UniProtKB/TrEMBL annotation:
<keyword id="KW-0443">Lipid metabolism</keyword>
<dbReference type="GO" id="GO:0005543">
    <property type="term" value="F:phospholipid binding"/>
</dbReference>
<protein>
    <recommendedName>
        <fullName>Lipid-A-disaccharide synthase</fullName>
        <ecNumber>2.4.1.182</ecNumber>
    </recommendedName>
</protein>
<dbReference type="Pfam" id="PF02684">
    <property type="entry name" value="LpxB"/>
</dbReference>
<keyword id="KW-0444">Lipid biosynthesis</keyword>
<dbReference type="GO" id="GO:0008915">
    <property type="term" value="F:lipid-A-disaccharide synthase activity"/>
</dbReference>
<comment type="function">
    <text>Condensation of UDP-2,3-diacylglucosamine and 2,3-diacylglucosamine-1-phosphate to form lipid A disaccharide, a precursor of lipid A, a phosphorylated glycolipid that anchors the lipopolysaccharide to the outer membrane of the cell.</text>
</comment>
<dbReference type="GO" id="GO:0016020">
    <property type="term" value="C:membrane"/>
</dbReference>
<dbReference type="InterPro" id="IPR003835">
    <property type="entry name" value="Glyco_trans_19"/>
</dbReference>
<keyword id="KW-0441">Lipid A biosynthesis</keyword>
<keyword id="KW-0328">Glycosyltransferase</keyword>
<dbReference type="GO" id="GO:0009245">
    <property type="term" value="P:lipid A biosynthetic process"/>
</dbReference>
<keyword id="KW-0808">Transferase</keyword>
C-alpha cells in the first residue's frame, strides 16, 4: 500500500511517526520526516507563525500544492493531518481529479473555534474523518469518529502522584518569532529563581543550529534539554508558551502556566474572528466537560515576569493533578493503533 501523507506541523509529524509503528510494509510519500527517511518536504519547510508569515510563503505553498496533487494520483490512500487551510483545498482538488480516491482526515480542524461553515465541505470531500478531541465529533453529524488521542501513545513517562521537588521548565516555543517575544520574559522569571534548577526545552530540530542566534547570551542561565517529555516529567512546574505542549504537560502530570505574546496584527485577527474563551488545548478540553479551567493563561500584556512568578507561587499542584487525571480519563486511549487498523481495513468497514 502506498499512502500520500501530509504533516505540515511538527506536532502532526510526531503523531505520524507513532502511527507508522503500526503500519508495517506501507510506503509513505509526501510531507513528513522520520529518523531514517523523509518526504519531498518536511514540516521545517512550513515553519511559519501567523497570517503575515503565511502570505509571504504563498508562492512556495502553491508549488507544493501542485506536487501533492500529482502524487495523490499515484497513491492508494491519502492521509492528511490538521492544517485545514492547505488540506481542505487539496482534498477538493484530489476529488475533482479522481472522485474515487480515498481521502482520510486525521486531527480535524478547529471548526469549533472559527469557520464552522467548513463542516459541510469537510464532510463532502473527505471519505473518513478521525478526531482526537471527543467534544468535536458531534459537529460532523455522524460522519466523524473519535479514535483516541496520540499523546496517550507517545508519552510513556507519566506521573502517578504530585511531585513536590524537581526543576523548573521553560518552553518559549519552536518558532523564531515566538522565541523573540517570549524568551526574554522567561529570562526575567529565571533570574528571579536563583536557587532553582532551570531547564530550557529546545525543539529537537534546533540541535544543529547556532542556538545563540535564537536565544541570545541568556541561554547560559539554563540547562538545555532536547527532550520535552523527559524534561516535563522531571519538573515540578513549567512555563509554556502554548500549543500541544499544554496537553503534553497535563498528561505527564506537571503543573504549568500558559504564557503567550502574539504579533499585534495576529492578536487583532484572533480577537475578532476566533470565538473561544481559552487558547490552551488543556483548558479547552477541561471546560468542554468539567466547566472549569485547568490552568492560568497569561496572554499579551498579562504575559510579564511578575505575573508569571505569582502564578508559579500560587499554583495548587494537588488540584492541578486531580483535574489532569480527569482529562486523561476523558481522552480514554491513544489513537495510533486505532487509526492504523482503519487505514488497513476496507474503506469505512470498521466505523461503528
Amino acid at each position: 500500500m502506498k499512502i500520500l501523507v501530509s504533516a505540515l506541523e511538527a506536532s502532526s509529524n510526531l503523531h505520524l511517526n507513532e502511527l507508522r509503528k503500526h503500519l508495517d510494509g506501507v510506503e509513505f510519500v509526501g510531507i513528513y520526516e522520520f529518523e531514517d527517511t523523509q518526504g519531498i518536504y518536511t514540516p521545517k519547510d512550513f515553519s511559519v507563525m501567523g497570517f503575515v508569515d503565511v502570505v509571504k510563503k504563498l508562492f512556495f505553498i502553491r508549488s507544493v500544492f501542485k506536487e501533492m496533487l500529482e502524487l495523490a494520483m499515484q497513491a492508494d490512500v491519502v492521509l492528511l493531518l490538521d492544517s485545514s487551510s492547505f488540506h481542505i483545498p487539496l482534498a477538493k482538488a484530489i476529488k475533482k481529479r479522481n472522485p474515487s480516491k480515498r481521502i482520510i482526515y486525521y486531527i480535524l480542524p478547529q471548526v469549533w473555534a472559527w469557520k464552522p461553515w467548513r463542516i459541510a465541505t469537510i464532510k463532502r470531500v473527505f471519505d473518513e474523518l478521525y478526531g482526537i478531541l471527543p467534544f468535536e465529533i458531534g459537529l460532523y453529524g455522524g460522519k466523524a469518529e473519535y479514535i483516541g488521542h496520540p499523546l496517550l501513545d507517545e508519552l510513556v513517562l507519566q506521573k502517578t502522584a504530585v511531585q513536590k521537588e524537581g526543576s523548573i521548565v521553560f518552553m518559549p516555543g519552536s518558532r523564531q518569532g515566538e522565541i523573540a517575544r517570549i524568551f526574554p520574559i522567561m529570562c526575567e522569571v529565571a533570574k528571579a529563581m536563583p536557587n532553582e534548577k532551570k531547564v530550557l526545552v529546545i525543539p529537537p530540530f534546533f540541535d544543529s543550529k547556532d542556538l545563540d542566534d535564537f536565544y541570545g547570551e541568556n541561554i547560559k542561565h539554563f540547562e538545555l534539554s532536547f527532550d520535552s517529555n523527559k524534561a516535563l516529567y522531571e519538573a515540578k512546574f513549567a512555563f509554556i508558551c502554548s500549543g500541544t505542549a499544554t496537553l503534553q504537560s497535563t498528561i505527564i502530570g506537571t503543573p504549568f502556566v500558559l504564557c503567550y505574546k502574539a504579533k499585534k496584527i495576529d492578536e487583532w485577527i484572533v480577537r475578532h474572528l476566533i470565538k473561544i474563551d481559552y487558547i490552551g488545548l488543556a483548558n479547552i478540553l477541561a471546560t468542554s466537560f468539567m466547566d472549569e479551567a485547568l490552568h492560568l493563561e497569561l496572554i499579551q500584556q498579562d504575559c510579564e515576569a511578575p505575573k508569571l512568578l505569582q502564578a508559579y507561587r500560587e499554583m495548587d499542584a494537588k488540584e492541578f493533578f486531580t483535574k489532569a487525571q480527569k482529562i486523561k480519563q476523558y481522552l480514554k486511549s491513544g489513537s495510533s493503533a486505532n487509526l492504523a487498523q482503519r487505514i488497513l481495513a476496507p474503506q469505512g468497514s470498521l466505523k461503528e
